[in-house]
Amino acid sequence: MTGSRRLAEACMATHGDKAPEGGRNGRKIALIVIAIAFIASATTAMLAFTASHRAREADAKALEADGSDLREMVTDWRSLRIDAEKAAPGDRQPRVDRLVTRINALSDWKPRTPCGQETRDRLRGVMEERARRLMRDESGQDVGAPLADEADILASAWRQCAVEPGRDVKN
Q1: Of 81, 82, 102, 84, residue with least CA distance to 138
Q2: Which residues of the chain have pLDDT under 70?
Q3: Residue 144: left (phi > 0), alpha (psi -120 to 50), or beta?
Q4: Cα 131 from Cα 143, distance rounded (Å)
């Protein structure tokens, strides 16, 4: 008799006519591995959801802070702009210089979100054109078509940001 046959007969004699229980242990191990994998997967999903939630909250706070900063800049700009527009052409230069200082401050401002950056760039373009027109008006040149109001540009940009949530995630 070969060795493997003796082992099989010994097992049969020990356990009666039943087959060895090696298959049951394999199933138990497989179930334990599946349970561990499920728990790990569920934990990973919960952690990802929590991280995503925190990121959305941080983005919302950053967007709110950008909006607050830009509204403050526009309010300051508008008061300086109105003062410059009301001034006599000969007295306008120092007032336009203050407007240019505000444009530079806006350019130096660091937005927290892509939406803040886009809005800053749009505002800066309109502000620069308005300052140029104020200077041309001083020399008697035609000022051209009216420009959009800075507050309207800000409101429009923020409506656009609300319509496209999720694009404000900084990479």
Answers
A1: 84
A2: 1-23, 138-144, 165-171
A3: left
A4: 11
Tell me the Cα Rg of the chain: 36
Cβ–Cβ < 8 Å for 144, 154: no
CB neighbours of residue 85 within 10 Å? 13
Q: Are 60 and 75 in contact (CB under 8 A)?
A: no
- The secondary element (H helix, E strand) that includes residue 29 is helix 22-86
CB 96 within 8 A of CB 146: no
How much is the pTM?
Answer: 0.63
CB neighbours of residue 73 within 10 Å: 20
Q: What are the structure tokens assigned to 17, written together?
A: 């006519």
Q: Render pLDDT for 45-71 as a digit per residue (tens, 0 to 9).
A: 888 888 888 888 888 888 889 989 999
